């Protein structure tokens, strides 16, 4: 029996068929018209959206509001609970850098962070010594959407670059702030990727510019006080399949230009001794070979999968001749030990690795070669490696948490091996870890692989199949979903839910091969793994099929669309946030922001009939049929450049037309935000409260 009662009729949407023939195969799309012809301009000015499209999106929002009207009180209660678990006036532990230590803080009621600094050895608890550099709430005043990209200071600590996006389209404006007077200079840099790297003299910096397809394709050198139009082009990447980033070294010796797609990378270096020189190529890009660099004085340490080091190794090369022919192995490749990132300091080399799905921090004395590790004993946990802002240090910073243990921040002396607890995440409304259970179980996949699933539930939850379950999945780009502390999901767990994360193929949870087995022609493994996780949870009586609500966002939203088509009977409801569901149409359109860089992940259906057929076989939008779909809600952002608003819009329209007796199918479009939803910390909680209210409603637990 449906929990959605007395619904009005859903919005009518016109069918305007458009046919497309590729590789001798013709497809017809009834809803292609929902993509605005002027989408590139609309991302910067939403007022120019086609009135017919706007009217339809608003009608869908009205229909969604009617369907969720009975959850208003529940949403408020959930929001209050989640807000109550957040320390409103929270503050970071400042990171030491030269004469200062830099940190960020929130004020009670504030949505945006405030960036500050204190004297290097000042007490972080002494608010009277804080020098407020940037007040995010002040800058956001009067704006429907506002997201800061942070603030980066010069080597002499006199100026800072800060950036903001006030539309949700991820085009950032950069400003330069005098850190003594707190006044911004006249410089205004538009359409950037959101940050910059200072030259050591503090008179200029480097940044990336976003092109009309939202790709950071050019690196510019900006001289403080000059107009953006006079900035010098340092490097342009003309291959539309590659992105660029720009960064700096702790020693201020080099500017790094990082060029990459999802499986290939290339670095170019610019010595800060000659800012006008041409960037030096380190190792020419080779398909499938990745590498990243960090400086270690007279050598570079390079993390790479070259020479079939599938789970990565670390090599070193002289700073003067860093080419691949001079790479010497330092940390060898070890199958099943995935090295995730690395850092170098004056006396130590540090890296974060993952074994059997669990992270470990490794430290090597650069002189003696002696190694030791930082690890924890819980069944499932998360580690974050922050490192340090200075090269000449023996102290690094890391964070630890688990599904039951609030986040803890430590300073760690790599020489003495002394661990200093700096901060434990406060839960103002109270939290007793002993009231909860976290577990790591393994579901058997269709091909015999073991899929890790992390669980959180209250100790008093009955595991007899009666508990509702929120099953979350992502499974793409090699991204691993950490088993860390999440105060928000406690609102579900405290209502008797089992909260589960399926660590499916497409991520790197079990090494690089786990990623390879969930991409390109093997993409369907991702979807089957998720269904296997649901099967296992039912088999072991953690829940039952009629009580599982599946959730995923972005590429995880594609997962939601795929499993809805493949096994609709195994889910009570589906939450698809900014879902990438129109995969084939998007991968066929090389004018879209992310299409060319995505081909190594999904395939290029323009050039290859075989890859066309892979994608066509699972693309959620293309495989909608008349089936007993469960209730589905899609969440969208009008200015989202990553998953454009028309993908979930078309999907919901097609679901409703093709399976009119199933669902219901709801669409919620945020008309003033993009991929990440609302930007304020409490505004974001409102969105999570909405999603959880939907899950509780669909599970019949209101």
Automatic annotation (TrEMBL):
InterPro entries attached to this UniProt entry: AB_hydrolase_fold, Pept_S9_AS, Pept_S9A_N, Peptidase_S9_cat, Peptidase_S9A, Serine_Peptidase_S9A
Disordered: annotated segments: 1-22
Domain of life: Bacteria
Hydrolase recorded as keyword: yes
Keywords: Hydrolase, Protease, Serine protease
Domain named Peptidase S9A N-terminal: residues: 11-424
Domain Peptidase S9 prolyl oligopeptidase catalytic, chain residue ranges per copy: 485-700
Pfam families: Peptidase_S9, Peptidase_S9_N
Keyword Hydrolase carried by entry: yes
PANTHER family named among the record's database cross-references: PROLYL ENDOPEPTIDASE-LIKE (PTHR11757:SF19), PROTEASE FAMILY S9A OLIGOPEPTIDASE (PTHR11757)
Family: Belongs to the peptidase S9A family.
Name of this chain's protein: S9 family peptidase
Source species: Rhizobium rhizophilum
